[in-house]
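Field reference: sequence -> structure
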Amino acid sequence: MSNLKKQLAAFARVVTKRQAAARGLTVYPDDTFLVSFPRSGNTWTRFLVCNLIDPDHPVNFRQLESRIPEIYDVTDRALRRFPRPRIIKSHESFDPRYKKVIYIVRDPRDVVLSYYEFQLKRRVISEACTLEEFLPRFMESECEPKTGSWRDHVLSWMATRGGQKNFRLLKYEDMLANTQQESAKIALFLGLDSSPERIARAVALSSAERMRTLEKQQSRQWKETRKTRQDKPFVHKATAGGWKSALPQSCVEKIEAAWGDVMRAVGYELAAAVQPAEVERHPLAPGARRH
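Structure field:
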C-alpha cells in the first residue's frame, strides 16, 4: 500500500470513528492498566485477573476483549462505554495519565525468542530469517516502532513509577515460580478477594495447559490469532530461561551489552563473560532509595 493510500485509510478510520484508541485513549482516574513490553506475559495476566474477578465464569479468548480490552483494537468511543472501574491492557511506554499500573517485565533474552516466534506466526518474517538476523530488528524496534526497545520501555516506567504505591512490578519469572503467591498479590493490589480457594481456582483456570486448549478451539475467532499461521501456537511452553539453550551466544552478548544495566536493575543476572562493573545499588532496583 502506498503512503498516500495509508494516509487516506487512516483518515477514513478517524472520520468514521473506527480509529483504535491507542495513545489517544480517554483515561479515567479509576482505571487500572496492565502494561508490558510485547510478549512478556500480558495475555496470561489478563486471564488471571479475569478469573480472579469472576472465577464462576472462566474467561476464554473469545471473551477476553470484552472483559479486559486492549487499547489497540478498540475505539476510544467503545472503551468509554465499558463499565467502570476499567482494567485495560496496554503496551505503551510511560503515560502520566495511567495512575494505577501493574507492570509486567520478562527477561529480554526470553522475550526475543517469543517475539521471533510471534513474528513468524504473523508472517512478518519468514523461516529463512535466523535469530542472528532478527535480533537487530528486535533491538531497534523495527516490528513495533511505537513501543520502543525493551530497555527504553522498562526504563520509562521504572524510573518514573518504581516503588510507588499504585505501581506493582510483576516479574514473569516470579509468576511461573509461584503463581499462587503472585496472584494473591495481584488480587490485593486490585482490591479483590484473595482467599486461598479463590486464588487457587483462578490459577487453575489460567494455566498454560488450559490456555493452549482454548487457543486450539478458538484461534480462528480471536483477533490476535485469526489471521496468523495456525501451525504455530500463540501460547508457548510458558517457561523461563529457554534462552540458555535456544539463543545463540552472540545474541546473548549483544543484548547484555546494550541492556545489561537495566536487566540487572530488575533482577536478571548476566551470562556474558565480560560484565558491566559492579555497582552498589542501581537506582532502578526494586526497593532502591530515592533522593
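Note: The CA atoms of residues 92 and 195 lie 32 Å apart.
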